[in-house]
Amino acid sequence: MKLDDFNIQLENNALTVRGEGRFEKESKKENYHRVERRYGSFARVFTLPNTLDQESVKANYDAGILTIEMGKRAEAKPKQIKVSVSGANSGGGLKTVDSKSFESKPAA
């Protein structure tokens, strides 16, 4: 396929990739003349998350491989939150619970 055979659209959090491939092969010999033709179109729609930065979408086509890159919006990326300790008691009234207290028990 050629680059002109692709149509890529991004609308309402849906990425649509359409294309049409054409193939033609001709062979002439002394006793015959043969022409093979293949045509085929395709369309794929991918639903994308709301966290996508639509301005960062890039498409690249190289050696028969179509690559589409997308990035997250800055506010959608996870943030590290620091917890501060207040008061003279460093325990802060927190209680430590071990994992055994969360084990499931069969119903009686």
Tell me what you see in this structure.
With 108 residues, the protein is an all-beta fold. It contains no helices and five strands. A three-stranded antiparallel β-sheet has the order 1-2-3, with no helix packed on it. The protein has a two-stranded antiparallel ribbon with strand order 4-5. It is rod-shaped.
DSSP summary, beta strand count: 5
Shape: rod-shaped
Q: Give the termini separation.
A: 65 Å
- Measured by DSSP, the beta-strand proportion falls in over 45%
What value does the average pLDDT take?
79
Helix-strand pattern: EEEEE
CATH class of the domain at 3-76: Mainly Beta
Main sheet characteristics: 3 strands, antiparallel
Q: Number of DSSP helices?
A: 0
User: Based on helices, strands and strand pairing, what is the structural class?
Assistant: mainly beta
The CATH topology assignment of the domain at 3-76 is Immunoglobulin-like
The value of Rg in angstroms is 29 Å
- The helix content is under 10%
Biggest sheet: strands side by side, in what order? 1-2-3
Using the 3D structure, state the CATH architecture of the domain at 3-76.
Sandwich
The poorly predicted ranges are none
